[in-house]
Specification:
Blueprint lengths: L7 H13 L21 H11 L4 H37 L1
Length: about 90
C-alpha cells in the first residue's frame, strides 16, 4: 500500500509520536485512495503525486500571497488602533 497524507508534516509527526509512545495508530477514519498506477501513464501519476505534495512551487507561492494578505490586514488593524487611540486622546483633552 502507498499512503499520501493530506498534510504530510502533521501526519509524519503524529505517526512518529504514536510510534514512540507505543500507541496503536488507527487509520480507520483516514481517507485512503487506491491508485492503479499500472493503468496510469507516468505523467498522470506524477501529476497526482505533485498535487498532494506540500512543498510544490505553486503551494509555496500561494502561501506567500496569503502571508502578504495577512500582513496587509495586520497593518490596517494597527493603523486603525492608532487612529482610535488618537481620537480617544482628543476626546479626553476636551
Amino acid at each position: 500500500m502507498f499512503a499520501i497524507a493530506k498534510r504530510p508534516h502533521y501526519a509524519n509527526y503524529e505517526v512518529l509520536c504514536n510510534a514512540l509512545s507505543a500507541r496503536v495508530i488507527d487509520y480507520s477514519q483516514a481517507e485512503i485512495y487506491a491508485l492503479r498506477n499500472s493503468e496510469m501513464k507516468k505523467e498522470e501519476l506524477e501529476r497526482v503525486l505533485a498535487a498532494q505534495h506540500e512543498v510544490s512551487y505553486e503551494k509555496f507561492a500561494m502561501r506567500w500571497l496569503q502571508l502578504k494578505a495577512l500582513d496587509r490586514v495586520e497593518s490596517a488593524i494597527l493603523k486603525k488602533d492608532i487612529i482610535v487611540a488618537a481620537q480617544d486622546l482628543v476626546v479626553r483633552e476636551r
